[in-house]
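fyi for ur records
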Amino acid sequence: MPDVYGGFNTDVAYKGVTLGLNFIYKIGGKLYDGAFKDVADDGYYWERIRVASLYANMWTPENTSGNMPLLRGTDLTDPMQYSTRQMSNAGFLRLKNINLSYDLPAGIIGKVGLGSARVFFNGSNLFTFSKYKNADPEVNNFGTRGWETPIGKIYTFGIDLNF
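which gave:
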């Protein structure tokens, strides 16, 4: 569980331009990366494709400074073993939504019979700042991550016309 979580937003308008920013954050807490366990374990799933950092950091008799376990393929109890290697800092700051719009001047749109006209851009999940780099740090209520599809980035451009 995080120590603190929440969000904040702002809306600023000047001369027909409006900018709205919505941020969410989580401070403190840990997340358990079950998907990383699948690709960086030391035995049971030994035949799976491995994350590249596993081989570079794997302990071997020649690499005794490695911090990942030796890949053996003989430990049939591995699914029951958990390690702090799969724990990561869960804190993040995410720009959840951005809205940028421009209201076209009344003098211009009145000439073509419009009451109002606005061009806009909306974006969701565009930037995330986090120490956790393996995947999306915004995880479920249990603080765990598996093989879920990450939250996508959404870009929307449009024109709003009113007659």
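The first strand starts at residue 4 and ends at 14. thats all i got for now
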